[in-house]
Fold this sequence. Notes:
By secondary structure, the chain is of the alpha+beta class. The protein has 18 helices and 4 strands. It has a 4-stranded antiparallel sheet with strand order 2-1-3-4. The longest helix is centred in the middle third of the chain and has 30 residues. It starts with a strand and ends with a helix.
Amino acid sequence: MAHAIRCSSGAGKGWRETFATCSSLRTPPERSAIRRSLAATTDTCSVGKVAARVVIASSAPSRALRPRGFLASLIACHAINDFTSQVLPPLFPAIRAAFGLSFLQVGVLQFASTVVSASAQIPVAYAADRLRRRRACIALGFLTYVVALLFLSRAQTYIGLVAATALIGLGSSAYHPQSTSMIAFAYPKNRGRASGLHGIGNGIGFAASSAIGGTLVGRLGWSVAAMIMSVPALCGAALATTTLPEPNVAGSVGLLQGLSRRLGLLTIVAGLTLSASAGFSAFLPAYYVSRHMSFAQAGVLAALFQAPALLAQPVGGLISDRLGRRTMLVVSSLGVAVFLALFELTRPLLALQIGVSMIAGLWASLAPPIVLVYASELSVGQRTGTAIALVWGMGIMVSSLAPPLAGAVIDHQG
């Protein structure tokens, strides 16, 4: 029987909620069993008229949450999700030419996708937490991608393009909060390492999307490319449904009760960090096309910005377990700022500029798994997915302004 436990962490620290699975707290043997099964911090708790000292679990590990191949399946799902969510940049040069769009209009397409993703993440994650439907949510997100890309491939007007890209954003709102929540429950220790390994899927997905998308556009056109690039998402829905476990933990009632000052500060940091890479990567293929590269060549070169994530994310996650999340986020932000500035300064030398973009991508890739796992550690009342959605979703919301702003600058400055 699941009891809602009200816990006081000490004078002046206020009340917080959590949930524990237990049959009763009435006898010492039963309380001892709870102490053995739960881990984390000790609080004074009361259920009805009975008071006891018990150990509250922020994430009690369970073998059921880590079946054989769990992390490998999650990495594969991550690769498919990020492959599909990143289909727009390699399509943009051809879409811009076909519809006669300005760079600002192209930026608005990316903005539509990003702002819908950011807006939907919190309510989607809260519902998934409360209803214990995290796995189903991930699968539904993949199916939404399929519909969105088929719709995009048939778009005949700019309004149709905006609607299709917004639907892509809705599909992308489902994955990260739920997958990171699964990691948080399955790996109560070494979460940074697990999140970093999970981030390998990000590097594979982003790099493959740029390279494959550019190649398909060059050979078959953007419309057919969009249709073909919907196939992995269909496979992702099947993979998530058949291989991912569902944590048997329900989030506490009350969306706003999961908010905190530290989550708000982390959200600001995530938004600023993501803005730099979002504005840069959205127009990187178009930039290489402007340097007289083919669509396929531009896609491959843009993929080099994403490829360092294969190394940076697992290493960064592991180091953050030792040096701390905040330290690694500061290092990542400084590295991105320095090398994006160098990218502009090295414009006359294209080969050097490509190398600089790879190093900038390495620094940018450090942040995402650290932000996600840090948010899970700041969650309250088992609202893990909700906390992640707040930080990641609102961070994306801030970063959504980067593509249209960058597009406007390109239109005026070149």
